[in-house]
């Protein structure tokens, strides 16, 4: 008796050619459901509809069609268990040798901006995952394919092994299938859960590429894509340059997060080891980049650059004047591409939607992992509290807002000194806040005079305020909340500083 293949797919890419090879080259009988059967029939292929095979019509508008003993018995039967074979014979069930199923496009549906809950729920596949899981469980006796990209590999297996797929191949397909159904369920759970963190949290991804190594050459690393639809860096277009490394991707994400703080005004960020060495706003993109570069030109060498506007020729010319690892922007003009091509090793990426990012952050610890909501609170100066006698001007308040936005993305303890919407000094990751203040002020030098200082956490003592004033700082923004806040306020008043409390802390570890 001819072998039996069950085909029921939402994504019909490559379906007809694959089915034709199964039938003509390897003698498979084909059974299929719904739209898949119609496509095969229209292509002139011999196909039996599932309803005809089971003797049970599709019901509930197609919600029930493959949930039947003649389907699942044929998938789950163990060919070396006599009772299983007897059950098949007594119930006129043929063993199924190949299951080809991919699922309703749930993730594609929920990605639509106007999707309703009812639309999303209707795209939750039931019969598909049931068949996939059954076939994957019984991989010792049949093959399951959940991805059109596997069709050619399966046909090649049959050609190389006298019409049979090897056990190793079947097992790999089963593993891929269980990963696929797990990710599908996770997407549904995440959508229904919304922004709330639930009792269960699952991480699932599909490999984008194996990276050369991790943070160091002795560490293995792989880049995974979340979900079925490529987004973020997995959806970015690389115009030129070498393959992305682990460290590139980590730094690119840090640069992206800072740059998304600024929308309309041209902005440039230069990152080294996840911390900004230069961030600036300008009247033009080239001005913003030039200011960011000059903020710390030594550290900018070999940096990661993120721009919030499309790269133009003038900006491209400046970008080529120093060695950079990566540049990312929402677009790139044709003239700019030609200029950047002169630095062929620089990785240039286009990410149209820089603002789209994860809603949670995940950190792995021994025996588990931690999940927290993303720190995506929007700074609102109307909710800030001016705690000093001296009041900020609108221009000063705007500069403090710039410094605060940058400080949010600097590793704690974090201090940022700015002038003219440009970082002048950055103190990152120090064990005490005074140390971060001193580093930022030393780096700023003369630019600290009349400058602005932001701190990601409160000042536990007034020493940082006094140090900032001695260097010439004119205004400070910090969360407030220390038991000794009044000491800092008194020091700021005595020294003629403006100080503003945000009421929000931005630790970053």
Automatic annotation (TrEMBL):
The keyword Thylakoid does not apply. InterPro entries: AICAR_Tfase_dup_dom_sf (IPR024051), Cytidine_deaminase-like (IPR016193), MGS-like_dom (IPR011607), MGS-like_dom_sf (IPR036914), PurH-like (IPR002695). The keyword Hydrolase applies. Keywords: Hydrolase, Multifunctional enzyme, Purine biosynthesis, Transferase. Its EC number is 2.1.2.3, 3.5.4.10. SUPFAM superfamilies: Cytidine deaminase-like (SSF53927), Methylglyoxal synthase-like (SSF52335). Residues 1-146 form the MGS-like domain. Gene3D superfamilies: 3.40.140.20, Methylglyoxal synthase-like domain. Pathway: Purine metabolism; IMP biosynthesis via de novo pathway; IMP from 5-formamido-1-(5-phospho-D-ribosyl)imidazole-4-carboxamide: step 1/1; Purine metabolism; IMP biosynthesis via de novo pathway; 5-formamido-1-(5-phospho-D-ribosyl)imidazole-4-carboxamide from 5-amino-1-(5-phospho-D-ribosyl)imidazole-4-carboxamide (10-formyl THF route): step 1/1. It catalyses: (6R)-10-formyltetrahydrofolate + 5-amino-1-(5-phospho-beta-D-ribosyl)imidazole-4-carboxamide = 5-formamido-1-(5-phospho-D-ribosyl)imidazole-4-carboxamide + (6S)-5,6,7,8-tetrahydrofolate; IMP + H2O = 5-formamido-1-(5-phospho-D-ribosyl)imidazole-4-carboxamide. Pfam families: AICARFT_IMPCHas, MGS. One of its GO terms (molecular function) is phosphoribosylaminoimidazolecarboxamide formyltransferase activity. Belongs to the PurH family. The IMP cyclohydrolase activity resides in the N-terminal region. This is Bifunctional purine biosynthesis protein PurH. The gene is purH.
């Amino acid at each position: 008796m001819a072998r039996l293949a069950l085909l029921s797919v939402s994504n019909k890419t490559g379906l007809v050619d694959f089915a034709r090879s199964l039938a003509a080259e390897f003698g498979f009988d084909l059974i299929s459901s719904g739209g898949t059967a119609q496509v095969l029939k229209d292509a002139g292929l011999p196909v039996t509809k599932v309803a005809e095979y089971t003797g049970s019509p599709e019901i509930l508008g197609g919600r029930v069609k493959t949930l039947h003993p003649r389907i699942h018995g044929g998938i789950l039967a163990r060919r070396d268990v006599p009772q299983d074979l007897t059950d098949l014979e007594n119930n006129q069930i043929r063993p199924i040798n190949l299951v080809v199923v991919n699922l309703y496009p749930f993730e594609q549906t929920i990605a639509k901006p106007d999707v309703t809950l009812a639309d999303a729920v209707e795209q939750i596949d039931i019969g598909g995952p049931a068949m996939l899981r059954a076939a994957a469980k019984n991989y010792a006796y049949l093959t399951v394919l959940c991805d059109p990209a596997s069709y050619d590999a399966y046909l090649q297996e049959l050609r190389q092994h006298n019409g049979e797929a090897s056990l190793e191949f079947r097992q790999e397909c089963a593993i891929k299938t269980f990963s696929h159904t797990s990710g599908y369920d996770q997407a549904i759970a995440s959508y229904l859960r919304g922004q709330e963190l639930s009792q269960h949290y699952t991480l699932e991804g599909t490999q984008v590429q194996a990276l050369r190594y991790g943070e160091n050459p002795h560490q293995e690393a792989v880049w995974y894509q979340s979900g079925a639809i490529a987004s973020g860096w997995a959806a970015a277009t690389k115009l030129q340059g070498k393959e992305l490394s682990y460290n590139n991707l980590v730094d690119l994400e840090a640069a992206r997060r800072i740059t998304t703080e600024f929308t309309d005004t041209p902005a440039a960020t230069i990152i080294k080891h996840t911390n900004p060495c230069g961030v600036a706003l300008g009247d033009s993109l080239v001005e913003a980049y030039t200011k960011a570069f000059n903020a710390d030109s030594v550290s900018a060498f070999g940096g990661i650059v993120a721009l919030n506007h499309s790269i133009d020729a003038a900006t491209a010319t400046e970008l080529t004047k120093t060695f950079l690892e990566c540049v990312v922007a929402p677009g790139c003009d044709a003239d700019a591409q030609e200029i950047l091509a002169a630095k062929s090793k620089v990785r240039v990426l286009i990410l149209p939607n820089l603002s789209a990012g994860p809603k949670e952050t995940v950190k792995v610890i021994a025996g588990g992992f931690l999940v927290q909501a993303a720190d995506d609170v929007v700074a609102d100066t109307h909710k800030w509290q001016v705690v000093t006698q001296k009041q900020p001007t609108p221009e000063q308040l705007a500069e403090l807002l710039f410094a605060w936005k940058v400080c949010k993305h600097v590793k704690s303890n974090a201090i940022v000194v700015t002038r003219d919407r440009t970082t002048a000094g950055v103190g990152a990751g120090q064990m005490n806040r005074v140390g971060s203040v001193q580093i930022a002020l030393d780096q700023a030098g003369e630019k600290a005079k009349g400058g602005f200082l932001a701190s990601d956490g409160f000042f536990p003592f007034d020493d940082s305020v006094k140090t900032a004033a001695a260097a010439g700082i004119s205004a400070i923004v910090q969360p407030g909340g220390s038991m000794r806040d009044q000491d800092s306020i008194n020091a700021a008043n005595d020294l003629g500083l403006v100080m503003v409390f945000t009421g929000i802390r931005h630790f970053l570890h």
